[in-house]
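Hi R.,

As promised, here are both runs. First protein below:
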Amino acid sequence: MKIGSKEALQKRIRELEERLEESDQLIDAIKAGEVDAFAINNTENSEIYTLQSGDYAYRILIEEFEEGALNVTEGGLIVYTNPYFCKLLNKPYEQVIGSKITDFIHEDSLESFRELFQKSFEVGCKGELNLIGENGPIPIYMSLTSLQPKLPTVGIIITDYTEKKKTEDVILKYQEHLERNNNELKVNNAELASFVYVASHDLQEPLRKIQMFASRITGLEYENLSKSVKEYVGKMQQAANRMQTLIKDLLTYAHTNKPDYTFSNNNLRKVVEEVESDLSEELYSSGAVIEYLEMCDADIIQFQFKQLLINLISNSIKFSQPNKPPHITIQSWKVHGHETEKASKVSLVESYCHFRISDNGIGFEQQYSEQIFEVFKRLHNQSEYPGTGIGLAIVKKIVNNHDGIISASSAPNQGTTYDISIPYRKYN
């Protein structure tokens, strides 16, 4: 119809108003359940939707559902099942439909199922059960809902828990493995404690006697000894002294534990000054100089951190270059956790203290930067640089006790730099 005149336009408006009113009435009727079909007009054709087509769409959804769907009578008879449940049981539809649901419930779960089934008539309920499978029980999660009063049946949805149980089994085995390791660790710690006791008493006592008698020989009978005997006694004293140093370092390493020690906030400059005082003789004899740069405070186990500094400064003195006095630079500063990538490796805290100690010593190849922190790991012969190879292992352990990280960067004859990051504790 060509719309041109005023009368034609008004007529068109009335037609649209009537159609709109009819549509409103149809929508109200659908909402009230008074009609079971309605049409939707498109530009090209019309589509009819009925309650039957809605039921069909719902049926398709249930049929394609990747979970088991059942409809069971009050007596437990299966009057409907979707294909997935048959697939789960690996049984044809004909063997499932019309059977009792209890025929497929594993005997270990029968009592639990009956309780859930009876309870479902009053309220929806859920639970974990086992079905009877060809290769053993099939773990499932079952949800039951009574369809009364519309239908005298119970609707059941079944979820396969096989993969979930496999994951739980893996986690359980891992937990059992972890528990065994923890028990072994307790035994090892007990053995370590016994070793510490032996080292501090039984080993040191005969060692002291060896040193004492060797001293008597060299003191009272030295002039009467042959040249070879003097050499042997001297080597014996050197070996005894190395043994004493080794026992001392092992005891320090064994006692460097975190539990039961208290953290406190300390100004690192004061801590370094105390260490400098303790090492005054070594610093004087070697001509070493300690240079302080920026220093901040840190949350530390004070006596352990002092041991860390003693070991690092002593290393710088020991591994100094010939005819070149050690020059040690120490600095620390506060860093916010979001400022560098390294912060995320320290701890989930807002800030941490970054501590750096550098020297001008002989250095080492960078490829050994991790190995130097291992117990008994040495990069030089005993004759060149005496030591037990435990000093830096103690440093590493102390840093771990502070929930921190340590790294070393070096090059031959270019000195060594140690970077230590320690989180600030939560009470700050």
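And here is the second one, sequence first, then its structure tokens:
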Amino acid sequence: MAINFRQTEILELIRRDGRVTVDDLSQRFEVTVQTIRRDLSDLSASGRLERVHGGAVMPSGVSNILYEERRRLNDEGKRDIAGRCAQAIPDGSSIFMDIGTSTEAVALELTQHENLLVVTNNLNVVSIMRTNPTCRIIVAGGEVRRTDSGIVGSFSADLLRNFKFDYAVLSCSALDADGELLDFDPQETLVSQVAISRAKQVFVVADHMKFERKAPIRICSLRDAAIFFTDMPLHPSLAARCAQWGTKVNVVSSGDA
């Protein structure tokens, strides 16, 4: 399907910001909301985006967004979340860190911590943490996934069974209405599940865009987390469940991390 100049710019905006709204686009292009709705419907029909209430988001389903696009999505929100998460991790901790751009943001915030032991299946986390001279780094070996420098598979999971971590810092591709953390690769979720079983506390980091995405494979539930760090309040029903489970929800507003 051929797309017009306005639809091309809409796609650029959604790749940059992760979400667009009908009202904002109507004002930006000085056209009616009905025109924008038609644009979004056309782009949705071609699979280029996914319609949500009041706007559209990056498409999701059974395959993940490309790594470079994920890294740019809501980078300010991820930094705020990461800063708050890092504040909750004391010097001298042992930490597992999984694959994901939110986890990598946490790694950046931990570069000034002292005497950490970091075990990870994320080569991007290795590159970040190696700048910290007091940090010991252990790579959970396995098959390298070239798309995002993640390491996945049973070899990685087997190594983690030898550890007992103070914290496991986990991200996800989607969070559903029941509080289930979801992802796309069963070999990746296997590693995360073993890390959860070997951690004293689980910290989950996920921005609000994950609330509107979908993925097919379960990692765990927010029930398994000590703290969930995010940038927008949960739906009241899920917030109530977290309270029942004893999962603290730490909502970070922009600039207050």
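A quick note on the second one: The two ends are 43 Å apart (CA to CA). Let me know what you think.

Best,
J.
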